[in-house]
Amino acid sequence: MASLSATLYTLLYLSMLCSTSLGAPSFTPILPPSYPLAVKSPYLSTWLPGNQAANLPSAKPQFWNGQELTWSVLARVDGKVYSLFGAPPTSSDVKAATVNSADFTSTHTTFTLTAGSADMVLDFLTPISPLNYVRQSLPFSYLTVSASGSDGSTPEVQVYSDIDNSWTGQFGVDVATEWGYATTARVQSEFSEVNDMAQWGTTAYCTLPVASNVTARVNILGAMHADFAVNGSLAGDWTWTPGSVAGFSHDLGHIKQVTNITFAVGLWRQPAVNYLGHDRSAYFTSQCQDINCACVHALADFEAADAEARTLDVDIANKASQVAGGNYSDIVTLSVRQEFGALDLTIPADTLDTNDVLAFVKEISSNGNVNTVDVIYPLSPIFYVLAPEYIRLTLEPMMRYLSSGRWPHNYTLHDLGSHYPNATGHDDGTAESMPVEECGNLLILVCMYEKATGNTEWRHTYSIILQECADYLVANGLYPFTQLSTDDGAGSVANQTGLVIKAAIALNAYGNMTGQTNYSDTGRHFAKVLYNQRVGIDTNETHFLLIENDDTSWGLQFNLYMDVLLDLDTFPTSALEMQTAFYPGVRGEAGVALDNRVNWGKTDWMMFAAATAMAEGVGNEGVRDMLVDDVHAYVANGLNDVPLGDRYIVEGSGAEVAGTWTAYRARPVVGGHFALMALEGPSCVRVGESARGE
Ligand SMILES: *[C@@H]1O[C@H](CO)[C@@H](O)[C@H](O)[C@H]1NC(C)=O
Ligand SMILES: *[C@@H]1O[C@H](CO)[C@@H](O)[C@H](O)[C@H]1NC(C)=O
Ligand SMILES: *[C@@H]1O[C@H](CO)[C@@H](O)[C@H](O)[C@H]1NC(C)=O
Ligand SMILES: *[C@@H]1O[C@H](CO)[C@@H](O)[C@H](O)[C@H]1NC(C)=O
Ligand SMILES: *[C@@H]1O[C@H](CO)[C@@H](O)[C@H](O)[C@H]1NC(C)=O
Ligand SMILES: *[C@@H]1O[C@H](CO)[C@@H](O)[C@H](O)[C@H]1NC(C)=O
Ligand SMILES: *[C@@H]1O[C@H](CO)[C@@H](O)[C@H](O)[C@H]1NC(C)=O
Ligand SMILES: *[C@@H]1O[C@H](CO)[C@@H](O)[C@H](O)[C@H]1NC(C)=O
Ligand SMILES: *[C@@H]1O[C@H](CO)[C@@H](O)[C@H](O)[C@H]1NC(C)=O
Ligand SMILES: *[C@@H]1O[C@H](CO)[C@@H](O)[C@H](O)[C@H]1NC(C)=O
């Protein structure tokens, strides 16, 4: 009797073990639409669609725009070969490792797998180090492969990894490729793109022998995998032929403890950006002028970068959870690399003067514009939380251009160039026209910068431009003529209440920072016309209108948020309270639409509205949580497979399913998800102290 029950117990135990190891992998904190893998610049932007994570061994990583990139990792454990990542088993000799878990933080994406008697971890790190300009501008991300024996075993392990010329943005198998540890397409086309991939520069894949012996080779992918399978090392000629990869093999020997090896993958573009005819290079070129030096630097900096990143991960997650709970933390955590990955931090290519730093932002996906003012506006909360100086660094290129007199209008222009990385201005006066939108944004952002940093000097350099903008809003802000707002996808219309709200707050902000109280008075007057005289609210006084005096219209009034953040009191608390209370009544299946014209919503603006709901005297946690949970459900619903898209269907109709992404992917505006955290004050999450990192 006793022995029978013992046997049954053992069997039960075994079957439980089986179901655990064969079960679906765990995804923490959620399974996102796409995992950031190496997302360090607009052109080094490699992702893994979430729906491929369970099949990591045969997954195909992608550039943000969907082009498949070759990036594989194999492990040889006691002579048997397992594919871990990006390597569909090509023969019966190669087995797919078992994927156990996938996890992401603000800077890391981590997968754990089992390969025979080895436990393997693939840890993809993109350092975010906003105050350390050297580290932030180093155009590299990292992959660390970690091996340890399961249950005390000491397997013999070799690890292999490769990339190919797809990373250079030139896909043809006959593309002539220079090879070394780096791949460079032989035909270079400076500052140009094909499908958003840079057509100039060099991709490098670098590693160092640490606890291992390293061999490297360039050869056809299949032959490389086969050689590794047989010998656990690479040897022979290096010849780039069509279909080749550049790969490394690390021999770790018998592993007695957790053994890590690190690869750095980088895209070196020099110059990086064309600013009004002058070449700009990555800030990092103040340290290194060639790719070999950069590789060595990147590998030497790994430990410090990783340590800083791990602290940041914890601090962001803790602060976000404390502010609005775990769902909110998931949203901001997924947004960090996406936002910083749209930036290039630069210095002049000729002088390498580190006192002349300018940041450039690509309006990824929607149209590729350079330093779009109404992209800097929505993303600004992440700067406010982590590194407010970036508000100045991203606006400065525009301010210099405006004060050069080359832009022939008396309102701010939309962007500094139609397509990244050509920040060549619009001297002919033709650019997407959003005069009230951009003038309002500019004044608000400058005020935000001053509140966050206490630096009032910067504004004085550009006082003529700012005054011109303020005067433009005084003249044109109360009944804006037919024009676009930031949500240009929704079309042009006259008398948009949202623009008037923006103008009112911007004028008050301008009056506040300059001490010219007559501008604040004008801003408050606009607010009174909208709210007290009911030009901008419905007759029943339940909400702000989309269009002045159009009683049937409504919109998500995200611009109210800046009144709260900057503590300006342009609108009375009762107005914020009214608008916040209105949202549950117009919520669609999956969120609140942008306005009554459309069935889609914007994740950034929903977070602005959630933060407005937490204004002093409003404190509507129910509405905050409704908006946060809707965005969370969209991010986690498994219906999407692109780098977080900020625009999605909130009300299904016909073929359009609620909760699906509709347009825009990988855009930096997800920095706006930090709106709630920003209410905790500027720099409320401390980042690495090593300012500038020189
Ligand atoms: C940038 O300008 C250069 C020179 O005019 C041009 O060759 C290139 O295609 C442009 N790049 C983009 C992305 O439009
Ligand atoms: C690396 O190679 C050396 C010389 O062949 C050998 O002594 C050593 O054990 C190897 N190390 C590992 C980790 O395999
Ligand atoms: C394996 O190594 C041996 C000895 O160095 C070499 O002769 C052989 O060509 C290698 N085989 C492969 C497939 O690389
Ligand atoms: C090795 O990698 C693992 C997994 O990423 C990590 O937890 C550990 O801290 C690393 N160890 C060292 C010494 O870097
Ligand atoms: C802006 O320019 C237009 C056209 O040149 C002019 O009519 C208008 O008065 C100017 N507005 C301001 C506020 O300077
Ligand atoms: C905008 O509102 C003003 C003031 O009510 C009105 O005179 C004007 O006709 C409106 N513009 C349009 C295009 O409806
Ligand atoms: C500016 O706004 C702050 C509140 O944010 C207020 O304390 C201050 O008095 C204002 N200054 C002016 C000149 O309006
Ligand atoms: C505010 O006052 C200044 C100084 O008197 C004047 O230059 C400016 O035109 C005034 N602006 C408005 C909107 O009243
Ligand atoms: C205003 O409120 C009344 C009474 O609740 C309602 O009958 C009417 O439909 C509302 N008007 C609008 C435009 O919503
Ligand atoms: C978090 O969001 C999910 C939707 O993704 C929702 O089901 C859940 O209730 C939310 N959790 C909390 C604690 O609000």
Automatic annotation (TrEMBL):
Signal as UniProt keyword: yes
Domain (Glutaminase A N-terminal): residue spans on this chain: 107-318
Superkingdom of origin organism: Eukaryota
Entry keyword set: Signal
Stretch forming the signal peptide: 1-23
KW Signal (keyword) present: yes
Segments forming a coiled coil: none
Residues of the Glutaminase A central domain: 325-676
A matching Pfam family: GtaA_6_Hairpin
Protein's recorded name: Uncharacterized protein
Organism of derivation: Salinomyces thailandicus
